[in-house]
């Protein structure tokens, strides 16, 4: 993950459509895995994770709408670490929703997967429109504080969620990790993995576990 740029230099261009990079094409009715990068990265940063996902999927990486510096973008500014302002989070989530609405047919399954800050966005996609997403993946990510519009639905439906985190990851605030670990079993059917010695990054093992989870989620959609 690149060093965090000065958050005061963020350009609030959230009204602009997010850019995207296609990692793998597939037929129009194939499930879509939407990869969401972390703070200070761009749509190239998770391409390697995308190449490890199962065949037969359309894999797309979105570039977050806030520009920090050339090649460095964010879904929302960092205010209180681990507890961002929900009002500041909402526009980035809305931009990702808008991309899905524009580029994916309504009957095609979509699975958002995010790293770090992108993990929060992936979970918010699910929490705000649970009927649209087949699940969500969090890679060193966390969930937003408070109740979201779709949380009551999630408590009934318990969609699949993958959460993988390194034991040496000190970037995400401890209270956000605790919040996430408490939220997952109450709202989802969670697959939780811990990776000894891994810092704030995605390892080959974690990417493999994610791929196995995605394969299971897609198989359930088509069962």
TrEMBL record:
Gene3D superfamilies assigned to the protein according to its UniProt record, in alphabetical order: alpha/beta hydrolase (3.40.50.1820)
Residues spanning the membrane: none
Superkingdom of source: Bacteria
Keywords in alphabetical order: Hydrolase
Protein's UniProt keywords contain Transmembrane: no
Domain Phospholipase/carboxylesterase/thioesterase: 20-216
Any matching Pfam family: Abhydrolase_2
Family: Belongs to the AB hydrolase superfamily. AB hydrolase 2 family.
Name under which the protein is recorded: Phospholipase/carboxylesterase/thioesterase domain-containing protein
Organism field: Nocardioides imazamoxiresistens
């Amino acid at each position: 993950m690149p060093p965090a740029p000065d958050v005061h230099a963020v350009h609030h261009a959230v009204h602009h459509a997010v850019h995207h990079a296609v990692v793998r094409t597939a037929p129009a009715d194939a499930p879509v895995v939407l990869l969401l990068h972390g703070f200070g990265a761009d749509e190239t940063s998770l391409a390697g994770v995308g190449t490890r996902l199962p065949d037969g999927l359309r894999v797309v990486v979105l570039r977050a709408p806030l520009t920090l510096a050339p090649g460095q973008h964010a879904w929302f500014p960092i205010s209180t670490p681990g507890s961002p302002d929900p009002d500041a989070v909402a526009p980035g989530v809305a931009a990702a929703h808008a991309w899905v609405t524009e580029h994916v047919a309504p009957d095609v399954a979509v699975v958002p997967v995010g790293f770090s800050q992108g993990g929060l966005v992936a979970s918010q996609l699910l929490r705000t429109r649970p009927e649209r997403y087949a699940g969500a993946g969090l890679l060193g990510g966390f969930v937003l504080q408070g109740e979201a519009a779709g949380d009551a639905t999630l408590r009934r439906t318990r969609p699949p969620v993958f959460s993988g985190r390194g034991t040496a990851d000190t970037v995400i605030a401890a209270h956000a990790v605790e919040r996430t670990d408490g939220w997952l079993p109450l709202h989802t059917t969670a697959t939780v993995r811990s990776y000894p010695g891994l810092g704030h990054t995605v390892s080959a093992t974690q990417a493999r576990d994610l791929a196995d989870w995605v394969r299971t989620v897609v198989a359930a959609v088509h069962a």
